[in-house]
Amino acid sequence: MNFSRQSSRHEAIITKYFSDPEREIQLKAGEVLLEQYEINNKLFYVAEGKICGYLPDKHLQEPVFEALDSSFVGVYSFFSEDRKSYSKVVAEEDSVIRYFDDNPFDLPPADTEELLTFLFNVVVGELRSRQHFAGNMAYERQATLQKLIQTEKLATLGQMAAGLAHELNNAIGSLSGNLRQLEEDISKDLVEGEHQQLADLFTKGLQEGQQLSSLDVRKARSKWEKTYALDKATIKKLTKSGIDPDEIAGDTVKALKAASLWNLGYLLHDMKTAATHATHVIQSVKSMGIANQSWSKEVKVNNTIEDALAIIRSLTKQVTLQRQLENELPDITACSGELVQVWINLVKNAVESLINNKVSRPTVQISTTQTADQIVIAIEDNGPGVPGELREKIFQPSFTTKVDGLSFGLGLGLTIVKRIISEHEGDITLFSEPGKTRFTVYLPKNV
């Protein structure tokens, strides 16, 4: 009831003192109502639009206050002793301004009391409004500062990663070159000095590595143990090699040589594989470095996926990882380092969901296909799914997916994913039910 009376009184005073059509100013967006330090004898009422005050500074273009519909402007200068505006007041959008420029004390006593009471409430309201505005601006500046600090940290980390990758690349390059030379020398010596069959065993270990499953190895071990009285380490090498005991024809010395040569080839094979993988990881890290955060019209989506998987290989070993990547995808315009970051986040989230929820036979499937105008990338897992009430919130930066002790493997990374995909003019969708969660990313083809 009191509020209704107060509101009616407010409207009555606005009508009485701020509705004279001869005291109306219409401003276009960008036009100035008051210059800084300009003498002001008016109290302005914003009937329509938006007005902001600025401190003229070419380095700082933030408003010090804003006034929307039904707000007042010029309160400070109207009531101050020197009547000077402390800021430059500008229309942010097309606005209609009405003003009061009489001396309140020249009015009849009853009107003076009524108006001064109203203006006192206006002053208090403006103080509260501007304090609230100043608080919001302070929070925004703090948030911006934190983003700048984080960006600087990421830039420094990117530079360090690029430098580290360069140094490691040199070391891996030297290792790879020496491995090739060692492989050639050993192969040549074996062909010249040993039986061809033994040379072939070295080559088999070198080219194929260990091909037998654990079950096949256990079956083969039994046959070797019955045929030869050899130590367990030698038997283990022979069974892993896939050599049949009958090929050695009961020759224990030959069996020892066979085990040694195959194992030597196998070790070189693993070293070459590790060197190749290390090179891939280094290139992937370099692609995320600050020096390489540039856009290209020749980005291969499948390559960015492989780069991401190389970086998180130790994590994906905990699940069955399935790839179904279409070979004939066209190149797209993108920032390859940022796409690598997207796939890392999505796959990492899927794996963590599976592991945290102890899913039986955890599986992550990555597929790429294309439509007439888009590349479609799907990352799917067989985890518990994201509850319906959470699906609309998962891209929010403050959102957590820990519910009743369960974690769905989603976090701040999804905010980054959403931002990157939006910057690529793409889209991301989520489908989730118990036993299947799939994020699908749509990236536009080059026009």
Average pLDDT rating: 78
Q: Write the CATH fold name of the largest domain.
A: Heat Shock Protein 90
- Count of distinct structural domains: 3
Mind telling me the CATH class of the largest domain?
Alpha Beta
Strand-pairing-aware structural class: alpha+beta
Distance between the termini: 64 Å
Radius of gyration: 37 Å
- Could you give me the name of the CATH homologous superfamily of the largest domain? Histidine kinase-like ATPase, C-terminal domain
How would a crystallographer describe the biggest sheet?
A: 5 strands, mixed
- Beta-strand content estimate: 15-25%
Strand order of the largest sheet: 10-12-13-15-14
Q: Using DSSP, what is the number of strands? A: 15
**Secondary structure tally, helices:** 13
* Second rung of CATH, namely the architecture of the largest domain: 2-Layer Sandwich
Low-confidence stretches: 1-6, 401-412
Helix content: 40-55%
Elements, N to C (H/E): HEEEEEEHEEHHHHHHEHHEEHEEHHEE
Broad shape: elongated
